[in-house]
Amino acid sequence: MAPKRAAQLSLKMPTHAVCVVGVAAHVDVRSDVPKGANSFRVSGSSGVEIFMVYNRTHVTKPIGKARWPLDTDADMVVSVGTASKELRDFKVRVSYYGEQEDQALGHSVLYLTGVDISLEVDTGRTGKVKRSQGDKKTWRWGPEGYGAILLVNCDRDNHRSTEPDLSHSWLMSLADLQDMSPMVLSCNGPDELFDSHKLVLNVPVSDSKRVRVFCARGGNSLSDYKQVLGPQRLSYEVERQSGEQEIRFYVEGLTFPDADFLGLVSLSVSLVDTGTLPEVTLFTDTVGFRMAPWIMTPNTQPPEELYVCSVTDTHGSNEKFLEDMSYLTLKANCKLIICPRVENRNDRWIQDEIEFGYIEAPHKSFPVVFDSPRNRGLKDFPYKRILGPDFGYVTREIPLSGPSSLDSFGNLDVSPPVTVGSTEYPLGRILIGSSFPKSGGRQMARVVRNFLKAQQVQAPVELYSDWLSVGHVDEFLTFVPTSDQKGFRLLLASPSACLKLFQEKKEEGYGEAAQFDGLKHRAKISINEMLADRHLQRDNLHAQKCIDWNRNVLKRELGLAESDIVDIPQLFFLKNFYAEAFFPDMVNMVVLGKYLGIPKPYGPIINGRCCLEEKVQSLLEPLGLHCIFIDDYLSYHELQGEIHCGTNVRRKPFPFKWWNMVP
Fold first, then answer.
1. Which of 291, 309, 334 is the endpoint of a domain?
2. Which residue has the higher pLDDT, 548 or 101?
3. Catalytic annotation, pick one of 472, 546, 610, 611
4. Average pLDDT, stretch 534-548?
5. CATH classification at residue 283
6. What is the pLDDT of residue 4?
7. Which residues contact 360 (CB under 8 A, 6 or more apart)?
8. Which of 28, 91, 275, 583 could, after both became Cys, cross-link 45 (CB 3.0–4.6 A)?
9. Given this model, what pLDDT does residue 62 score?
10. 280 close to 114: Cβ distance less than 8 angstroms
11. Residues 176, 207, 352, 567: which is the catalytic one?
12. Catalytic center at which residues (predicted)?
């Protein structure tokens, strides 16, 4: 709305005013009044609605055709329901009366030109632009909420470009329009009106670097779409053509929510009277958008693609591991994508380099890869090979200092949907490792933590991972889907469960059964020797305390009960005060639906079976899961990683629409 102004009536000549359809216009009936007049009566032509605004507790409305006293505290307001076909085709007449009620002392005439001006977007979140009579400026969360949504145009639709589409200030491909949100300007009225009036689109300075607006002129050529708003372009005088009633625009998102950006932007159109000096804004219509957040997908979402790297080291290639991954993806009906050595530069830790997520608006959704600031051998892979049509890219770089191990995305996970007390997290909660409860220590970079928090829809939880040498949350936890009512279980590495299992086997008479049985490159150590090793016992007491601290945080922040947690046997050892896995870390698995690719632990063989594998199967297979143990000892475990570290999964988006939640 423009500042409130009133049409000034005159007894000497008609007054002319522009009235926007559906918008009340104030009329000053007291600006020029005949001498002796004390009341007035109003009439209007067809299509004009006239009403008086007054305080019912202080003013009594006249009965029937009685006139309104001039000294009454009431204001006259008029509106029109349709646009005019020609100038001044609506009429309002005000007659003034004195003591003699049957004879008017004078008349004022107001001619109105109706014009239909509105800026429309997908406020109802249906995927289509519809005329809205409600609040278009405000954005509301929840199933009863409203407000339009923008996608950050971070994919690359044109194969001739090497950069994301948002890097270009011009349209690179007509397909790019699908990544933008449509906006329609209604501008119906007599053509002559626009000889003395103009329409101006505006974007606030603070929002101008967040969006671009393209004007569409209906053709199939890129030249038919002109950028009219955006960085360094704060306003645009609309080029309305004769007889044009609607003009279509496309709005492009440029930046994700972050510490310095709440995700909200606005655009407006103003009707400006150019026939006055200075020019006067008669009406402004404003629409608001929220930038779609980047959303992670948990292990409970069905897998679509499994990424793994082909590498070679002193032990040879990881070809056998790739064959095992091929078998696993075949079982899970999931596509396998192998990143060749020429692209990974012998960097196998693809989980640490990237995290897959997605963005969604009512009209469009596509996956977006988040590139970590780790920047090792795989640093160019997501930008050069994953970024493409309908596959977006986002990253955050660490200013000044270099990344720590905790900045790798093995230290980034997300829970399945949870309810904590009365608070619902329908998209789960992000989990990141930190130095809590220690003072000091390593943390994930602030720029990454700020980005994750700013998305709002998966409120992050910080865990304690700095007790580990590598320092990643995937070294002690994972989630698996289940077919029961809960829908998932949290798996935690458990030294106490492992020591208890070994003690039971000792008491059953299997104390000489050895860990690492079947491995050529590692000396065996018996159950008796492990249980008698004071250093190993001490190290695992420390590891268990660290995991228990996280267990309590996870129960509190995810609303979990003990029955929602499964303890997976695992031992650690301390090296320079930080923990490493003593044998392949089984929770560091890859989850493909009900099929689990688990690091082969090479545990003590009892009655022809690995007792560690047997124990894990007894815990997980009753939940409807299939355990497939895979040898990763030389290619991954000896390099302080496991299967999860060396793989990455793109999963289906949530069916739940993020805008229906209330963060």
1. 291
2. 548
3. 472
4. 98
5. 2.60.40.1700
6. 64
7. 151, 292, 295, 653, 657, 658
8. 91
9. 86
10. no
11. 352
12. 352, 472, 474, 645
Q: What is the mean pLDDT of the chain?
A: 95
The residue-averaged pLDDT of 228-235 equals: 95
Overall average pLDDT of the 140-156 stretch: 97
Assess whether 401 and 514 both reside in one domain: yes
The span from the CA of 119 to the CA of 20, in Å, is: 13
- Is position 663 within any domain? no
293: three-class secondary structure by DSSP: coil
Q: Please tell me the distance from the alpha carbon of residue 634 to that of residue 341, in angstroms, as a whole number.
A: 18
Q: Note the pLDDT of residue 159.
A: 85
Structural domain including 95 reads 7-115
Annotate 186-246 with DSSP letters as a single string. Answer: EEES-GGGGGSEEEEEE--GGGTTTEEEEEE-S-SSGGGEEEEEBTTB-EEE--PPTT--E
Active site residue 472: yes
Residue partners of 341: CB distance under 8 A and separation at least 6:
309, 310, 311, 312
Query: Catalytic annotation on 631?
Result: no
Confidence grade of residue 59 (pLDDT, cut at 50, 70, 90): confident
Q: Across residues 102-124, what is the average pLDDT?
A: 95
Report yes or no on 1 lying in a domain: no
Query: Based on the domain organization, do 302 and 444 belong to the same domain?
Result: yes
Residues 301, 284 share a domain? no
Whether 5 shows a pLDDT value over 90: the answer reads no
376 Cβ contact list (under 8 Å, min separation 6): 347, 349, 353
Which pLDDT tens digit goes with each residue over 32-41? Answer: 999 999 999 9
Region 157-168 average pLDDT: 91
Instruction: Note whether residue 2 is domain-resident.
Output: no
Q: Is the pLDDT of residue 1 over 70?
A: no
Question: Same domain for 216 and 331?
Answer: no
Beta strand extents in 513-589 (DSSP E only): 514-515, 525-526, 565-569, 572-575, 578-581
Give the residue from 91, 115, 139 where a domain finishes: 115
pLDDT above 70: percentage of residues in the chain: 99
Give mean pLDDT, residues 403-422. Answer: 97
pTM beyond cutoff 0.90: yes
Q: Name the helix (H) or strand (E) containing 115.
A: strand 104-120
Residue 662 resides in a domain? no
Q: What CATH number does the domain containing 503 carry?
A: 3.75.10.10
Residue of 157, 165, 347, 474 marked active site: 474
CB atoms < 10 A from the CB of 91, how many? 16
Catalytic (active site) residue 535: no
pLDDT at 280 over 60: yes
Q: Which residues lie across from 525 on neighbouring strands?
A: 515
Active site residue 474: yes
Please check whether residues 228 and 319 belong to one and the same domain. no
- 247 with 265, same domain? yes
Residues 6+ apart with CB under 8 A from 370: 294, 354, 355, 356, 357, 394, 395, 409
- CA dist., res. 267 & res. 245, Å (int): 20
Same-domain status, 152 and 194: yes
Contact indicator for 466, 442 with CB cutoff of 8 Å = yes
> In terms of Cα–Cα distance, which of 105, 76, 75 is closest to 92?
76
What CATH number does the domain containing 34 carry? 2.60.40.1860
Question: What is the bridge-based pairing of β-strands 303-309 and 335-339?
Answer: parallel
Comparison of pLDDT for 54 and 646, the residue scoring more: 646
Q: Write down the pLDDT at residue 2.
A: 44
Q: Are residues 434 and 574 in the same domain?
A: yes
Q: With DSSP H G I counted as helix, E B as strand and the rest as coil, what are the percentages for the chain, rounded to 5?
A: 20, 35, 45
